[in-house]
Amino acid sequence: QVQLVESGGGLVQPGGSLRLSCAASGFTFSNYAMRWYRQAPEKERELIARISSIGGNTGYADSVKGRFTISRDNAKNTVYLQMNSLKPEDTAVYYCNAQLNSGGYWGRGTQVTVSS
Predict the structure, then answer these.
(1) Please, are residues 50 and 108 in contact by the beta-carbon 8 Å criterion?
(2) Mind listing the pLDDT tens digit for each residue in 39-76?
(3) Cα–Cα distance between 51 and 109 in angstroms, integer?
């Protein structure tokens, strides 16, 4: 079955960095674009980054553009989100997402807290 497992979240000070990972299994990873979303308390889930199936095309929400970088390693079935210059407003649960022919799939998320 399809599984997406996020990791790498934690507590970081403003201006710091974190690298999130999402390990995928149960489907042909290299065939599909992947996305990172986040959801802050009492807010809707927000699409923040997308990467094409072979990594040639990426896109970002304005809120993270220039600070976050999405990448993937198809040999490891893993998508990454490098987050730099973190701000308190980046505090959220971060989820990876795969939109497959059979439907959309989500991981359980990883908490990122940006606070001094």
Answers:
(1) no
(2) 999 999 999 999 999 888 999 999 999 999 999 999 99
(3) 18
